[in-house]
Design brief:
Blueprint: H1 6-13, H2 47-55, E1 60-62, H3 69-73, E2 86-89, H4 93-105, E3 110-113, E4 129-132, E5 139-142, E6 147-151, H5 156-164, E7 168-169, H6 180-185, H7 193-196, E8 203-209, E9 215-218, H8 224-230, E10 239-246, E11 248-249, E12 252-259, H9 265-277, E13 283-290, E14 297-304, H10 308-314, H11 316-319, E15 326-327, E16 330-333, H12 334-340, E17 350-358, H13 363-374, E18 380-387, H14 390-393, E19 407-416, H15 422-436, H16 453-460, H17 464-474
Parallel strand pairs: 2-4, 3-4
Antiparallel strand pairs: 1-2, 5-6, 6-10, 7-11, 8-9, 8-10, 12-14, 12-15, 12-16, 13-14, 13-18, 17-19, 18-19
């Protein structure tokens, strides 16, 4: 049988475009139960109340009777099929404040959506209100100051397009259709992370609407506790409507994929680890195990922002003795490298994913991954991202984002197009997670389809107590609970 092609590889893995440094994952505190929509009690809305709300907005209101309701209620993960009572497509922070007020007065569950790529599907909710920011996507670049102001409804591709006009960029995920709001609030992993830190590390300030309707700025000098919390603590503390990012030079890069024959995963993973252990800040490698026509296939995603010759020298151990079947690594613009990684899936897909952070990818951990992939479901992915460089040099106390030691983020995913495939796939993900749990120390909250309270405490570790206190200050009633939830202290 023919080896997997680059197009086939991209199509097979497109379902989790958001997982490559992206997931703005959200879920109910305590966990919603496996892949089930959870209905919450809500007061029925009358037409007069809806009309009054609509008259107060610059944006517009979408109800189940609206022609665009079906398209607007959909989220990226089709494992969730939720039906909100009302969707408010906001056009300004004032619209967000009015929506928050309306939702609370009518006892509605509130979901906040930027790009809709939540792993847990909570860009929508049953019987509640969706505060949709997709109409707020303005991006302004101050090239001399190397700053970009981007509204929270902008997508990764929007920001990349705007900043690359000036040869600049900031750390964002590698899927152009992911919203920057959830990505940044959860930390934001991306190809520039070893050189410039996570997305949240590049935030200079943010505009936030609190649950009591205040529009405030958060930075190191103003509302510093909130600024600390929103850089990695998710959407627990208010609705972020705009971010100011620091920018960096980003021109040509060495990027592409190395696709290997099925089989020698136990030898290929250590070879990749050896490269990452001594990697300079310019190099970002992501190892993936995905389905192939002849069995589990090993793929390495390469991003190198230094001199191409030096980058190719670093890759020599990955090109021999196991020669890739396909080697697409070449020089391209940073924008091309971002745009080429994960095109939209040709059809709606459902998926389930989990994350673990392993300070070391030991021989037993590699053996566990290798063994699991031999018995994997038809559609799966194991993605291993190396954390090193600038992101690990940020002090642990600087921001809520907790992944500050060198190590490996392991995301395990399954996806399906037929409902009958779901249960076995989810069981496989959970079994591999259990096998790797003894080697883990935390996780990336944007990579969780079921971010339970127990997992949140494990994810944030020593930062959790401080986050709970800040949650109590800004959202004491846990109004914003459809997210990787932190309960108020």
């Amino acid at each position: 049988m023919a080896p997997i092609t680059r197009r086939q590889f991209i199509q097979q893995t497109a379902f989790t475009a958001a997982t490559l440094y992206a997931y703005p994952a959200t879920a109910l505190a305590g966990g919603p139960g496996r892949l089930r929509g959870r209905k919450e009690n809500a007061v029925p809305l009358d037409r007069a109340a809806i009309r009054k709300l609509a008259s107060q907005l610059r944006g517009h209101v979408i109800t189940p009777n609206s022609s665009d309701y079906e398209s607007m209620r959909q989220v990226n993960n089709h494992a969730y099929d939720r039906h909100p009572a009302v969707i408010v497509r906001c056009a300004s922070p004032s619209d967000v404040a009015r929506a928050l007020d309306f939702g609370q007065r009518h006892s509605l569950p509130l979901a906040v959506r930027s790009g809709g790529h939540s792993a847990a599907g909570y860009g929508a909710c049953d019987g509640g209100m969706v505060i949709d920011l997709s109409g707020m996507k303005r991006v302004e670049v101050d090239a001399p100051k190397r700053l970009a102001c981007a509204q929270a409804g902008a997508l990764v591709g929007d920001v990349d397009q705007a900043t690359q006009r000036f040869g600049l960029a900031t750390t964002l995920g590698a899927c152009p259709t992911v919203g920057i709001g959830g990505l940044t609030l959860g930390g934001g992993m991306g190809t520039l992370m070893p050189k410039y830190g996570a997305a949240c590390d590049n935030v200079k300030s943010a505009q936030v609407v609190t649950v009591d309707g205040r529009q405030i700025e958060a930075n190191r000098g103003s509302n510093a506790d909130l600024f600390w919390a929103i850089r990695g603590g998710g959407g627990n503390f208010g609705v972020a409507t705009e971010f100011e990012y620091g920018l960096h030079p980003a021109g040509e890069v060495l990027a592409g994929t190395l696709v290997y024959p099925a089989g020698p995963i136990p030898e290929l993973l250590p070879a990749c680890l050896k490269v990452t252990e001594a990697a300079p800040d310019e190099l970002n490698l992501v190892a993936m195990i995905v389905p192939g026509q002849n069995g589990p296939t090993y793929v390495v995603l390469v991003g190198y922002s230094g001199r191409p010759g030096a980058g190719n020298d670093l890759l020599k151990p990955l090109r021999a003795p196991h020669r890739p079947l396909r080697d697409t690594v070449n020089v391209m613009s940073y924008l091309e490298s971002q745009a080429s990684g994960f095109p939209p899936s040709p059809k709606p897909l459902s998926y389930f994913t989990t994350s673990l952070f392993l300070p070391q990818l030991s021989e037993p951990a590699i053996a566990g991954i290798t063994s699991a992939t031999k018995d994997a479901p038809q559609k799966f992915r194991v993605m291993i991202s190396c954390l090193h460089g600038a992101v690990t040099r940020v002090p642990y106390s600087d921001a809520a984002f907790p992944l500050r030691m060198k190590g490996y983020d392991v995301e395990v995913s399954t996806y399906w197009s037929a409902p009958a495939e779901k249960d076995s796939g989810v069981r496989w993900v959970e079994a591999l997670r259990a096998a790797l749990q003894p080697f883990s120390h935390g996780m990336y909250v944007n990579g969780l389809s079921e971010p339970t309270g127990e997992l949140m405490r494990a994810a944030y570790g020593a930062n959790y107590a401080r986050l709970a206190e800040i949650k109590k200050k800004y959202d004491p009633d846990n109004v914003l609970r459809l997210n990787p939830n932190i309960m108020p202290a």
